[in-house]
TrEMBL record:
<feature type="domain" description="Hydroxyacylglutathione hydrolase C-terminal">
    <location>
        <begin position="28"/>
        <end position="113"/>
    </location>
</feature>
<dbReference type="GO" id="GO:0046872">
    <property type="term" value="F:metal ion binding"/>
</dbReference>
<keyword id="KW-0862">Zinc</keyword>
<dbReference type="InterPro" id="IPR032282">
    <property type="entry name" value="HAGH_C"/>
</dbReference>
<protein>
    <submittedName>
        <fullName>Glo2p</fullName>
    </submittedName>
</protein>
<keyword id="KW-0378">Hydrolase</keyword>
<dbReference type="InterPro" id="IPR036866">
    <property type="entry name" value="RibonucZ/Hydroxyglut_hydro"/>
</dbReference>
<keyword id="KW-0479">Metal-binding</keyword>
<dbReference type="GO" id="GO:0004416">
    <property type="term" value="F:hydroxyacylglutathione hydrolase activity"/>
</dbReference>
<dbReference type="Pfam" id="PF16123">
    <property type="entry name" value="HAGH_C"/>
</dbReference>
């Protein structure tokens, strides 16, 4: 999953195009993702992109096509594996886990919701 999200997609699109590339997921899951991501960034203001997404979701049932790849990079913990808040949330307090282990723990956390 890490390679698909963080290497293939981001690399193919290219960083200069992240803000121009709209995200159209195959299903509407954004509101439930906000609840999950809020467990990682519990304080409003801790992740401005998440705050923006949360406000949007509170007013709109459909979110597909309203956010860009850059937005995803800014709020999606599966695309923020090197973020200390993400590492702490999965239990990597020593910043020593590899990306696959962090990804696996995130997926397990999400699956338990």
């Amino acid at each position: 999953m890490d390679v698909a999200l963080n290497k293939s997609i981001l690399g193919i699109v290219g960083k200069k195009n992240w803000g121009k590339t709209k995200v159209y997921p195959g299903h509407e899951y954004t509101s439930s993702n906000v609840k999950f991501v809020r467990k990682i960034y519990p304080q409003v203001g801790e992740n401005k992109a998440l705050d923006k997404l949360e406000q949007f979701c509170s007013k709109h049932e459909v979110t597909a096509g309203h956010f860009t790849l850059k937005d995803e990079v800014d709020f999606n913990p599966f695309m923020r594996l090197e973020d200390p808040a993400v590492q702490k949330a999965v239990g990597d307090t020593s910043n020593s886990w590899d990306r696959a282990e962090i990804m696996d723990k995130l997926r397990a956390m999400k699956n338990r919701m």
